[in-house]
Amino acid sequence: MNENIGAEDLETVAFEIGVVVPKSLGNNKDGDETDDCVEVLVDEFRKTGLIVDRVIGLQNEFLRLGAPLKTLGQAAAELQLKKRTHIGVDLQFHWDEVEAYERQPDGSLFSWFERYCCYRHIIYGIVNTSTSTVILKSDGNEVHWEPGKPLLRTLESMGIVKEVFPVHDETKRKQLLRSWALNWWDFTVQPIDDICNYYGTKIASYFAFLGMYTRWMLFPAAFGVTVQLVDFGSLQLFVLSAFFISIICWAVLFFQFWKRKNSALLVRWQMNYPAVDNESKYLEGEWYQFQSPVELMKKQGADKTDKPRGKEAFQREEWLGHFMRFRNDAMIILSIICLQLPFELAFAHVYEVLRSDASKFCLTAVYLFIIQYFNKIGGKISVKLVKYENNKNIERRADSWVYKVFGLYFMQSYIGIFYHALLHRNIMTLRQVLIQRLIISEVLENMLENSLPYLKYSLKKYRAVGNKRKREKGTSSEKTQYMSRVEKEYLKPDYSASIGEELEDGLFDDFLELALQFGMIMMFACAFPLGFAFATLNNITEIRTDALKLLAMLRRPIPRPDATIGAWLNIFQFLIVMSICTNCILLVCLYDHEGKWKISPGIAAILIMEHVLLLLKFLFSRIVPEEPAWIKANRMKNATHVHDMCSRQLLRSISGEKMHELKKDE
User: Fold this and answer.
1) pTM, full prediction
2) Is the pLDDT of residue 661 over 70?
3) What are the Cα distances from residue 497, in Å, to 75, 107, 252, 381, 500?
4) For the chain, how far is it from start to end, CA to CA, in angstroms?
5) What does the mean pLDDT of the chain come to?
6) Nearest-CA neighbor of 568 among 367, 358, 330, 409?
7) Which of these, 165, 162, 207, lies nearest to 188 by C-alpha position?
8) Contact status, residue 613 vs residue 580, Cβ threshold 8 Å
9) Alpha helices in 170-235 (DSSP H)
């Protein structure tokens, strides 16, 4: 612990950024540390107003950085961040007018994403302002800090600064553990505002969606248990039809009300979509900083002095982007049809031919092993294709990538089930496959999802302690040095996606699991109504295990500015339409007492029901507004208020100019 840090600062300022540097080996023979790289870096950090806490680890030294509110405010003003004012308008931030801006739900001035942007701006904004190169030293080696170059970038390129990463705030982390991860009695209730303040709007949106989705699942779960366990005799087809119609209406209404809730969350979290879309960029895998609109206009070539050229350039860029996306989507679809579809059909056929359960289990294990490589290859190809598309920002690129990759998972998850349902028409085999996919696969995925990060961390920790012991072997070592909290966080794995980590974080895997589950229980609801009950139990557990994973097993994720579920909303909507078609096919293929399906004469009525449900989906999406009335009223009120203020200010300006002219004439 650095002696220059006051006790008051340590208690009031949260350390949220960690910088990893080499551990000092004491090789400076002259004893002069004024030109040492780490010492100069620490001194420059403190000059910017940051509070630095130096922690000596087993292998490295860790610089924990914290910032007083004034330091963050000045950085936000330099970045020209836009913040919500008390009159409901987003204006450029000025530290001198700090009282004019609204606070976050927890009372803080800046969100975690805004604080992270400010930290990055401060630490990467330290440049050599002199006209000559500064010579620094690191373990006897010289480092040249050239004029105008950022110090941190220079040290990163030399391998002296190993990593910069967000660190957990222990006070808030423990509070979230008690009120969220370990609070099993509240089932789906979560402290969403606290999650937003600590992890950012994107992760908070995921958990808000998961909690609402799980609460709404209670109705189809209860209905499904009744349909599955009660024998309705000759009315079984009628009950299945009623169940099918009810879950379609349930799904459409759920997503309409989710849009309403998401709109309310956007207002509560003071989200400004234009600012996010136009003023943020993703640099080297991280949401880095804001760009001013002037810089963006220059970058895009939209110069007002050349209007015709700007219009043509925008049109050419727009249609080129559409063409590139269409070409890439067509390539992915053809690859899925020509390569993945035959493989999936072959697996489904062999699975149907095998009689032994042990053989089926071994075949499934081999299939899952092979398909992991298919997914990784498909994810890498999709990342390369997305790079050639004209997407505005990283969230748009991520959405485009999600659409492509979900096609791979959709094929591998459902083609085998379609094969059993349509060709073999074996209801017992279909139910076995659904049970395996819903129960066994989800249990295994949850176990792997939560055990792998811990195993990776344990292995890194074991290696670090082992290397420390090897170095101290045969020497007179001092007291046993325990691993510090920040070093433990450094050894923990990132919250990254299983594939495509260049564009997505761990939310991809979490949303993918939900989407595949939703498709499974919806598209084959008539064949296995009990699936909704299993999904509900899994989601209740998922809320707490995902929270525990984030708080205890992984590093603190880098915040993302988006506050919606993005491309996944359209994917869920697509799965609803698919479920209408598949369940109608299941109802057409009625099964007899022996478990073999036969064609029913009621096909005309079922086809009519299919078209009616598609119409109901469209009507419900129009009847239930996506935005609550109070949000529209507040927007109109704020707009009127701003208009009145601008009108009064303009009148004062006109009156002042007129009085000035009269006095001048006199």
Assistant:
1) 0.84
2) no
3) 31, 32, 29, 15, 6
4) 72
5) 79
6) 409
7) 207
8) yes
9) 170-176, 192-199, 201-216, 218-229
